[in-house]
Amino acid sequence: MRTFLNILFKTSTTFDDLDDQFEDNLEANANLLFMLVGMVSGIDLFFKDHQYFKEYPIIIVALGFILVSAGFSLVIGRYLTTYILYAIGKLIKGKSKIIDMRVVAAYSAIPILLKLPVILYFGFTGNILVTGSISYWILSSFYLVLWVWTLKIMLQGVMKFQEFGFVKGIINISPFLLLGIMTFLLI
């Protein structure tokens, strides 16, 4: 648990500590983190879309959203994100192993877990964010900070495990940087 919190503020030191752990422990922790991030996303989706499933029991709908999102996040994080980071790194002469990039992908997603209190507040109070309102802009700014924080952790992890400098690190995480920019521009 301490590692999960240390990654937020002592990123380089935490990645050094993770480099010394057994691969089985790293795999288990990465899977757990991917599923937790998926669960947070599932809770968010539930609060946004539960009104479309009024004919079903609400607990079944909530569990469905959470479980499907957790599974989807596990597959996307464990395979797609990991192999994108690994493949781009290898193209530009990186030195990491697949497990290293899986750890980077998983631990860089920890700031996303900080969305949970906000999601729960808006979900249980029933407040609807109106585009252009002050609460909308505050929440968007908060999510932007979390996204930048996620990229910072990912960049530091890629630089450490791939043995890259800053520029190659940015190139390695560029798909996620571009995806985030497109997301914020479209919303």
TrEMBL record:
Segments traversing the membrane: 30-47, 59-80, 101-122, 134-154, 166-186
Annotated membrane topology: Multi-pass membrane protein
One Pfam annotation, family name? Yip1
| Cellular compartment(s) | Membrane
Instruction: Tell me the keywords, alphabetical order.
Output: Membrane, Transmembrane, Transmembrane helix
Where is this protein chiefly located?
membrane
Q: Does the keyword Signal apply?
A: no
Q: Which InterPro entries match?
A: Yip1_dom
Its domain of life reads Bacteria
**Domain Yip1 as annotated: residue spans:** 7-187
Is-annotated flag, keyword Transmembrane? yes
Name used for this protein in its record? Yip1 domain-containing protein
Q: What species is given as this protein's source?
A: Marinifilum caeruleilacunae
